[in-house]
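Dear colleague,

Following up on yesterday's call, I've attached the two folding results inline so they're easy to grep. Please treat them as preliminary; we haven't cross-checked anything against experimental data yet. The first protein's sequence and structure tokens come first.
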Amino acid sequence: MNLKSKRVVVTGGAGFLGSFVVEELEDRGCTDVFVPRSDEYDLRQTEDIVRMYEDNAADVVIHLAATVGGIGANRERPGDFFYENAAMGVELIEQARQHDVEKFVTAGTVCAYPEETPVPFSEDDLWDGYPEETNAPYGLAKKMLLVQTQAYRDQYDFDGIYTIPVNLYGPRDDFDLETSHVIPAIIRKTVEAKRRDEPTVTAWGTGTPTREFLYVEDAARGLVEATEKYDRGEPVNLGSGMEISIEALVSTIKDVVGYEGEIVWDTSKPDGQPRRCLDTSRARESFGWEAQTEFEQGLQRTVDWYRTHREEIVADETD
């Protein structure tokens, strides 16, 4: 698909991943990109979704809008995380079908994988068990969009694809400690502890689980390349292929930040899924995509961005 001649709607295009996807599209010569803003279109409401399609006549939709957060937010708001993600996605796909959208791209979630998935996670393992319970409502809501796109492909010949990005990190991430994921949370805690000369920083859990992290610009490139080149009903992983323990991750962030204090592990907090690392061979073989950013290089860019923007982040939280 040549996106240069298409009108592309990017839901969530003002957010963390979405802003980089919009930039990637523009860098590739796509001149007609529309980002629906929540104050104009509430994508949890069917009438707003219908109005968005009627206003914008999309050729392609890249669906990134989501209600998201870390383990704490998922535990506190499981109903919101299930309903809002399911409602948005299901109706966006149905109305895309009714409005003759040529291609619909869903960004799923690694949280959809079963808790005990063998490492590396193959897309073929997606249905082999129940997700880790702290993220299950969110993961299952997003996984239903895979079911929907596959069903629509079978019945309506609807060109919908489903990508599964692993945990993302990078500039413009959410650094609010109430909702952030582990990398921005530890970056913020260690940067602030260094500034205040505090002797300890608290991290959640035991530090033993493993995770894989994908730099946001690599993810954006993967999503756009999948949009251009991938046309299959099977889901496709987007990951870096690097597995790291949370303990090692926190130690690496400490080194990048230059914080010399002690990490205190709050073992009353949940660890989440025991291990997480993706098999990305399908993306490589199907459309030639691989992650390019070295992990410490990506962390340094993220730390630098937080330090540059920390005052406005704090100001936004206090408004």
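Below is the second protein, in the same order (sequence, then structure):
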Amino acid sequence: MATSLTLERVASSEWLVPQSGGMRVPGRIFADEETIAQLEAEVAVRDGWSALRQVVNVAGLPGIVGASLALPDVHPGYGFPIGGVGAFDIEQGVAVVGGVGFDINCGVRMLATPLSREEIEPDLERLGEDLYDTVPAGLGSKGKLRLSIAEIDRVLYEGAAYVVERGFGSVEELAFVEEGGRMEGSDAGAVSERAKQRQFGQVGTLGSGNHYLEVQCVEKVLDDEAAAAYGLELGQVVVSIHTGSRALGHQIGQDYLKEMATASTKYGIPVPERELVCAPIESPEGKRYLSAVACGSNCAFANRQVIAHLVRLSLARVCGAAEADVRTIYDIGHNNAKIEEHVVEGKTRRLLVHRKGATRAFGPGRPESPEAYRDAGHPTFVGGTMGTASYVMRGTEVGMKRVFGSGIHGAGRALSRKKAAKRFWGETVISDLASSGIRVWAHSQRGVAEEAPGAYKDVEQVVAAAEAAGINRAVVRLHPMAVVKG
């Protein structure tokens, strides 16, 4: 591929990569000028890691519909860019390993507490320490829920419902989990024994990397109607849980890189990047991979369900908040592939939508949303950094039409983890955040350096670009108070 690409500006926050060469559809990028300049700088470096090249590569995959999409938090990933969306025709399209990635159904569960910022502040130090001690975190961490292979299979089939049966949370809150906490089509036989063995003790663990627990308060309400629907109000304290399918999901990704490489050759599909190995959706290999993805998704739902229960226990111990009063606002993932119905050129079509570092953001009226949220559309969660705001957002009608009901999931990295670890020092980051009133408990100082606020783009610009494009709308702005990092 050429080291330079033509980008055409078609709106204030929308850019087009015209269809050329092996592209089956154009590329469409929703971003501000600063992000576009960064993408162009990346692509100018020969053999460099480039999100723009990845947008073009995805546009050349069989059966892709509409455009290869990138959202305002776009940055390079493996195969698909992070912040990438690709929808594929069921009969002609492919299931792509790089369209989901290695942390299958990594996502966020947000819990609403009955406490205000003023009420929780005196207990914040003790709460942070208790959460740090209560929720297992860090690389290779093990939880209190030990599972046999047979029990892991039940997690892969039943998702969050299985751990609810084991005493972690309530059946009622599953209505506020994407897919009800269980993806259909799972097949534990599509998951290797190695993947299952790696997960024996990891259900109910936070992990490392960019995963976190964050105690936040609502510092600004931006959409009164949607905020009321979600039960969010000014000054309210919430807790965000960001984690995924842990070692099981990563092993599924590794296993299927090999299996789908063979399938790509078998079906004669050119692969421009290793992680874009794929197979036709309706092929045995494609079906098997999607069954494994559903298993990984169910594992992630179960993982966040257990952690949510542990957070409730901690809030009750330290702050006196009754467990029943700590409510799940929503739980939604941002690394997945799902069969959905979308209107394309006036016709309703079933499509396999890959979202890599992008969340489902369905607008008003979709039956997949909880009934209580249906008029507003369901909430989405946009993580900033340990030192900056996060947002609750929602989908829009424009987003349904332009990006297959997808939304941003975070600020997006500006520096790789390696570069961030060289530029920042974990102890200094924690000290600087403490001086601004944000407390951090960390299992790894290097992890803090890798996730330093300066390693990320400005979340305010990312949110503004999504709003300017009309694809997502901000509901509330959240301020970090206490953070637990793996």
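For the second protein, one point worth flagging: Residues 284-319 form the longest helix (36 residues).

Best wishes,
A.L.
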